[in-house]
Design brief:
Blueprint (H helix, E strand, L loop, with lengths): L10 H16 L19 E2 H13 L3 H16 L2 H12 L13 E2 L22 H17 L6 H14 L17 H18 L2 H17 L1 E2 L2 E2 L27 H13 L20 E2 H13 L3 H12 L11 E2 L9 H8 L7 H11 L5
Antiparallel strand pairs: 1-2, 3-4, 5-6
Helix pairs in contact: 1-13, 2-3, 2-5, 2-13, 3-6, 4-6, 5-7, 6-7, 7-8, 10-11, 10-13
The structure holds beta-D-glucopyranose.
Beta-D-glucopyranose binds next to helix 2.
């Protein structure tokens, strides 16, 4: 395994790197699925979105076999959904809009099955989220491109690309599993990126053309006052907008609309302790500062040679580790709505810790080489 390099000489960072790799590997089931969080009942599933970022981080640190196993798991899981997906595609292509509850899920059990209704509290889960499918295709292509391999399952890639091409205009839940206005810039960006990747994997032009059409739609409808906005009818900022250029390259990192978005996130979505919020008005566990988002901004800062931003993000994340070097989903120290912390703790227990996606984004922030 190649020894990865990290942008740090600090011993604590190195310890957190080692621990992060360990936590992600330990959170990978024999099936290849990454659990979202091992100690949080509602997160005992594998999400395509969280998992694809974990696979990306594993590729980045040289644990490519782990990433390969995840991609294999997604392929076999989605093969199990093939008949249902074909029916959905036919219905969508005939102009029907299926009920959200009928659509493909955003998360599966570690064995690659659909969750049973009522299995966890708060079911049914808002499972209709399209971004994970786009993110997965994007990461799959990158994984094979970087390794020079091509042993992916083309039947599944084609299926997912046709599903996204047919479904992309329907309203779905966003990456925070909230509905909002049903059309989300970060979801649209992920779909466009995924279709481009599917086109590259399969050598199929129609997916590339669809990807371009969706990109144009994003640029025409999700820019307000010179920066990207959260929803079609929602002008607010959202930190997930970072994905538009990093990693999806819908626009380059120095695109003025993107740069303005990042600087607005940096100033308007920075919490009192220095971490980054999802969006203003978030109340989940009080709406605190998220480890994965602060790392995401730090990753952007490293990519754009903003060393003080990068160092600040690294230090802030380090301040969030638990005694045994685990990273939670969010910090409840500087929350937006303090009265909303307790209701969530009473409902679901303390904030999910460790969250594999937090560890993945930390690794992506400080690892050298790949994006
Ligand atoms: C987040 C999602 C995430 C899920 C599992 C939710 O609270 O909003 O983005 O995929 O947790 O980590």
């Amino acid at each position: 395994m190649p020894t990865p390099n990290f942008y740090t000489s600090n011993a604590r960072d190195r310890e957190l790197v080692t621990k992060s790799i360990e936590i992600i590997l330990q959170g990978q089931s024999l099936s290849g699925a990454y659990i979202a969080s091992p100690n949080f009942d509602s997160y005992k599933y594998s999400w395509l979105r969280d998992g694809a970022f974990c696979a990306k981080a594993m590729d980045a640190v040289g644990e490519t076999e782990s990433a390969r196993r995840f991609h294999r798991w997604v392929e076999s899981t989605l093969l199990g959904q093939k008949l249902h997906a074909e029916t959905l595609i036919q219905r969508l292509e005939a102009g029907e809009v299926p009920e959200m509850g009928d659509m493909l899920h955003t998360r599966y059990t570690l064995a690659g099955e659909l969750e049973e209704y009522g299995e966890v509290e708060d079911s049914p889960w808002p499972n209709y989220q399209l971004d994970g499918y786009g993110i997965w295709l994007y990461e799959l292509e990158l994984h094979h491109r970087n390794l020079g391999t091509s042993d992916f399952n083309s039947e599944v890639v084609d299926l997912v690309a046709r599903y996204l091409s047919a479904a992309w205009e329907t309203e779905c839940f966003d990456c925070w599993e909230e509905i909002g206005d049903g059309r989300h810039a970060s979801t649209i960006a992920a779909i466009s990126a995924g279709l481009k990747s599917a086109g590259a994997l399969l050598g199929v032009e129609k997916f590339i053309l669809k990807s371009r059409e969706i990109r144009e739609y994003l640029l025409a409808n999700f820019v307000r006052d010179g920066r990207f906005c959260k929803g079609l009818l929602d002008d607010r900022l959202d930190s997930s907008l970072l994905c538009i250029a990093l990693p999806f390259e819908i626009v380059p990192l120095d695109d003025p609309r993107f740069m303005q978005t990042v600087e607005a996130i940096r100033s308007d979505l920075r919490g009192t302790s220095g971490g980054i919020y999802r969006y203003l008005g978030d109340t989940y566990y009080g709406g605190g500062e998220w480890i994965l988002l602060t790392s995401w901004l730090g990753w952007y800062d490293r990519m754009t040679s903003n060393s003080s931003g990068f160092e600040d993000a690294k230090e802030w994340v380090m301040n969030q580790v638990t005694d045994n070097f685990e990273l939670p989903e969010q910090s409840t120290r500087g929350v937006q709505e303090p009265s909303m912390v307790r209701p969530w703790v009473e409902r679901w227990g303390r904030v999910a810790t460790p969250l594999l996606w937090s560890h993945a984004m930390y690794l992506l922030m400080i690892q050298e080489g790949d994006k």
